[in-house]
Write a structure and sequence with these properties.
It is a single chain. This protein is an alpha/beta fold. The protein has a domain at 4-190 and 223-250: NAD(P)-binding Rossmann-like Domain (Rossmann fold, 3-Layer(aba) Sandwich), CATH 3.40.50. It is built from 11 helices and 12 strands. The strands form 3 sheets. It has a 7-stranded parallel sheet with strand order 3-2-1-4-5-6-10, sandwiched between helices. Helix 2 (64-74) packs parallel to helix 4 (96-119), helix 6 (197-206) crosses helix 10 (315-328) and helix 8 crosses helix 10. The model has no long low-confidence stretch (mean pLDDT 97). The structure holds nicotinamide-adenine-dinucleotide (NAD). The site of nicotinamide-adenine-dinucleotide has 30 residues, from helix 1, helix 4, strand 5 and strand 7.
């Protein structure tokens, strides 16, 4: 019988890519556990919804009884934990749900895992906790994050993720739960809810709306195509060492302004505006985000050298695929934003 993996947050941006990779490229059965918040949409999984190895359970990860029942029902060989509240701006406006889902939800999953493993012999079980480079805070003009960087989260979102990472470490150290943490750089790609920089700018450009950029646009992020991220998570699940952390990134540092210029240049070529003016004319600088981290940049040497990890997309190939996907999938945008 095929083994079963839980994916939490499988109806979200990265989670849906994770589910798709597992269904299309492995033999695992997949149980997608998702509460379907504003960011979770089954529309993102239409292509695999009828696959016999895929199941969906609409459950809140904070619900102890229902998560326990799912462990009993499916007897998983692992959990890839991606469910989270993920948008920094929303966490600044209203942080409560971030603390509930990101901290208490992770705590609940760890406790349910502990009870499950105490009753069942599942020797190869692994709990992969998917986290972010934002837990490390902000860099100046030089230097990189790696597995030894000290935690220094700056926003309500990143502090809730940092807290959940610490719970995962504690449950491994205290109860010997077989956990691994991944900390990844900023993701982009298809099925990204259009509130974050890249999908927002692409969609606004397609709709001839202003392209908002915080401050002067000089903040730097390190970008990874979501499909490359989930390949890294699967690699870590299959070959990573229990108790360790793996930093995932693809050496793609860009200022926000560079990202937006790249999108405008590509759109100018493939979908010129009726006015013949450049999409650059839509760029609008808006007041900076509170506590805006200046720079994130990852040194992924550990995962590259110990697990032979290599992203398949460059920033240019990934951003072209992303732009083309949004041009072809405006119906998806309408459904998830209405
Ligand atoms: P997302 O916001 O697109 O999706 C989150 C998913 O979790 C949604 O489907 C939502 O319905 C679900 N969810 C939220 N609260 C839940 C709850 N209480 N119970 C069950 N399901 C719930 O997020 P994303 O961008 O796909 O991020 C996935 C994970 O990867 C997060 O843990 C995030 O911190 C991490 N991460 C994201 C990035 C990035 O750039 N997006 C980078 C590094 C790490």
């Amino acid at each position: 019988m095929n083994k079963t993996l839980f994916v939490t947050g499988g109806a979200g941006f990265i989670g849906s890519s994770m589910v798709r990779l597992l269904i299309n490229n492995t033999t695992y059965n997949v149980v997608n556990i998702d509460k379907l918040t504003y960011a979770g949409h089954l529309e993102s999984l239409k292509d695999i919804a009828l696959n016999e190895r895929y199941s969906f359970e609409r459950v809140d990860i904070c619900n102890h009884k229902e998560i326990t029942e799912l462990f009993d029902k499916y007897q998983p060989c692992g959990i890839l934990h991606l469910a989270a509240e993920s948008h920094v701006d929303r966490s600044i406006e209203s942080s409560n749900v971030f603390m509930q889902t990101n901290i208490m939800g992770t705590y609940n999953l760890l406790e349910c895992t502990r009870h499950y493993l105490s009753k069942n012999s599942t020797p190869s079980f692994k709990f992969i906790h998917v986290s972010t480079d934002e837990v490390f805070g902000t860099l100046g003009k030089t230097g990189y994050f790696n597995e030894d960087t000290k935690y220094d989260p700056q926003s309500p979102y990143s502090s809730s993720k940092a807290s959940s990472d610490l719970l995962v470490k504690a449950w491994h150290n205290t109860y010997n739960i077989p956990t691994i943490i991944t900390n990844c750089t900023n993701n982009y790609g298809p099925y990204h809810y259009p509130e974050k920089l890249i999908p927002l700018v692409i969609n606004n450009a397609l709709q001839e709306k202003p392209l908002p950029i915080y401050g002067t646009g000089e903040n730097i992020r390190d970008w990874l195509y979501a499909e490359d991220h989930v390949r890294g998570i699967l690699l870590v699940y299959e070959k990573g060492i229990i108790g360790q952390t793996y930093c995932i990134g693809g050496h793609n540092e860009k200022t926000n302004l560079e990202v937006v210029h790249t999108i405008c240049n590509i759109l100018d070529k493939i979908k010129p505006r009726a006015s013949q003016k450049s999409y650059m004319e839509l760029i609008t600088f808006v007041p900076d985000r509170l506590g805006h981290d200046y720079r994130y940049a990852m040194d992924p040497t550990k995962i590259e050298t110990t697990l032979s990890y290599k992203p398949q997309e460059t920033f240019i190939t990934g951003i072209e695929k992303t732009i083309n996907w949004y041009m072809d999938n405006q119906a998806w945008v309408k459904i998830v934003t209405s």
